Amino acid sequence: MQQAADFLEESDVLAAALEGLAPDDWARATQFKGWTINDVIVHLHFWNRAADLSLRDPEQFQADMAPIMAEMAQSGLRGIENAAISLRGRDLFAAWQGLYRDMGARWQSVDPKTRLAWIGPGMSARSSMTARQMETWAHGMEIFDLLGLPRRDSDRVRNIVVLGINAFGWSHKVQGMALPDRMPYLRLIAPSGAIWDFGDPSDSSRIDGPALDFAAVVTQTRHVDDTDLVTTGAEARAWMERAQCFAGPPETPPAKGTRFVQGGS
User: Fold this and answer.
1) Given 46, 227, 232, 255, which is the most exposed site by the fewest CB atoms within 10 A?
2) Rounded to two decimals, what is the model's pTM?
């Protein structure tokens, strides 16, 4: 399963940015809801563990998730995640890295079509891995932004692009928007320079620009106006203003100018 290899590479790229952090850096707040770097890695590690458990022991996954889902409805995610994972700093890093490396290797031999339980509707193993890569890429963004570091991106971002496209209907439903008859045409430039196009090029509604910018918008890590995407037509603009490729309640994308690369330490 290529998606598992892509998840492993995505995680390794983020790990490389964290390797040299000073102890105090782990408590620095990012531009995402004030989450610290510790918060981000706790979140990634918590849901990596959950995804892996859904494959290794489906019955235990269901047993563990039932009370968590009930508590989550009352108190939200942060308290649950931080209560479940008390490690911080380098100890947290070691636990997160040990698991993602194990998963990234082991899941490559999993049948991508294997059905897995999740906290909402079930999904395929391929979708589960794509979701883990997407979360790592998206939450990694606030860390790279905070540290002022460039990220070593590659065409593995295509998985996130496809996820964003597949969530076209979901984005409209969760945000309470009317669903257009069809998705706008997309012409995206991959990190390698390849052209990825999706939809009907004769459509008057379209989106052109870097694939990385499209991924940033659908994961709500950038406002569309802070990217090089060009939207043509009201439907394309409306989608990019409210896109949401992840599950859960509707989330408001970042306002223009609020998510950007900072100056580092």
Assistant:
1) 255
2) 0.95
